[in-house]
Amino acid sequence: EDQVTQSPEALRLQEGESSSLNCSYTVSGLRGLFWYRQDPGKGPEFLFTLYSAGEEKEKERLKATLTKKESFLHITAPKPEDSATYLCAVPWAGGTSYGKLTFGQGTILTVHP
Amino acid sequence: DGGITQSPKYLFRKEGQNVTLSCEQNLNHDAMYWYRQDPGQGLRLIYYSQIVNDFQKGDIAEGYSVSREKKESFPLTVTSAQKNPTAFYLCASSIVAGPFYEQYFGPGTRLTVT
């Protein structure tokens, strides 16, 4: 069974203090990975799709990277508005996947001014 | 603007009552999904549908039912058989093409059953 684990569960940073969030997975063959941002009380907002090991994607202060066993979301010089829960998800392996996703439990990021 | 709408945003029901959550999308996506989110947990798939008049159970379908009579709509009914229905419910949609594809989410409905 696919498992997706995110660490840390919560991360508190000072504004401008760069750091990384981790998403590790045990899946039967890498099929790619998604990152989402979720603000309190709202639906997740799509950030990135990573298709293969070695791939990197960037958006403003965020950079996502992917290896065969894990993905990192690097946050450079974060601002308070980057505070949110960040979720990663991998496609299901079974048969006709049809886009079904297994989500990690999320990392709650808080950036203090 | 294209997007996914869910209504209502907050819903309160008494135990033993069935309740239906609405999900509509104008993205022309073929696939639609329902997830449940509980505090400290990731999203768990309840039901999904790839095409009109067809849907499949996800991980936690017990106590829930869905219909897909129109491409744009995928309502979820939380029945009295669902033992712990209080949660945040999220609807999503995606295209159906290629090996996998990102899902886009609605704003969610917070259901409280007392």
Residue-averaged pLDDT of chain B? 93
Distance between the termini of chain B: 36 Å
Compute the number of structural domains of chain A: 1
Backbone shape of chain A: globular
CATH top level class name of chain A: Mainly Beta
Oligomerization state of this entry? Answer: heterodimer
Task: Output the radius of gyration of chain A.
Answer: 14 Å
Provide structural commentary.
The complex is a heterodimer of chains A (113) and B (114). Chain A is mainly beta. Chain A has one domain (3-93, 100-112): Immunoglobulin-like. Helix content of chain A is 0%, strand content 55%. Chain A has strands at 3-7, 10-14, 19-26, 33-38, 45-50, 56-59, 62-66, 70-75, 84-91, 101-103, 107-112. In chain A, the strands form 2 sheets. In chain A, strands 2, 4, 5, 9, 10 and 11 form a 6-stranded mixed sheet that branches. A 5-stranded antiparallel sheet of chain A has the order 1-3-8-7-6, with no helix packed on it. The radius of gyration of chain A is 14 Å and the shape is globular. By secondary structure, chain B is an all-beta fold. In chain B, 0% of the residues lie in helices and 48% in strands. Chain B contains no helices and 11 strands. Chain B has strands spanning 4-7, 10-13, 19-25, 31-37, 44-51, 54-57, 64-66, 76-78, 87-94, 104-105, 109-113. In chain B, the strands form 2 sheets. In chain B, strands 2, 4, 5, 6, 9, 10 and 11 form a 7-stranded mixed sheet that branches. In chain B, strands 1-3-8-7 form a 4-stranded antiparallel sheet, with no helix packed on it. In chain B, β5 and β6 form a beta hairpin. Chain B starts with a strand and ends with a strand. Classes of the chains: A mainly beta (113), B mainly beta (114). Chains A and B meet through β5, β9 and β10 of A and β5, β9 and β10 of B.
